[in-house]
Design a protein that fits this description.
mainly alpha
Length: 104
């Protein structure tokens, strides 16, 4: 378990990353509308299959699909990646699954 000082340091580093992303103009993933998502949340064929399989196996809605893409875009931004990768999608799916389990 991290000590108080280490936790504050990690939080400060994260806040700095977010500030850098916002300054670059890339921190708008949560506000993307459907048309913008097609332009900013492009994924490759492998990632598309991953999302499709997850959607059907987990019975996620279309809204959940969009949320997963938005979160994956934010994760890619934090990683300073122009593209959303399968790793970004897997992390976003994990958060969605966790969210779903906590709410049910």
């Amino acid at each position: 378990m991290k000590q108080g000082g280490e936790m504050r340091s990690a939080a400060a580093a994260f806040a700095f990353q977010v500030a850098v992303i916002v300054a670059r103009g890339r921190g708008e993933a949560a506000r993307l509308i459907q048309k913008q998502m097609k332009a900013h949340c492009r994924i490759d064929e492998e990632s598309s299959l991953l999302v499709e399989n997850t959607m059907s196996q987990m019975s996620f809605s279309a809204r959940a699909h969009d949320r997963i893409l938005r979160v994956a875009r934010a994760i890619a931004d934090l990683a300073d990646s122009a593209n959303i990768t399968a790793d970004h999608l897997l992390e976003a799916i994990g958060y969605r699954t966790l969210d779903r389990n906590l709410l049910s």
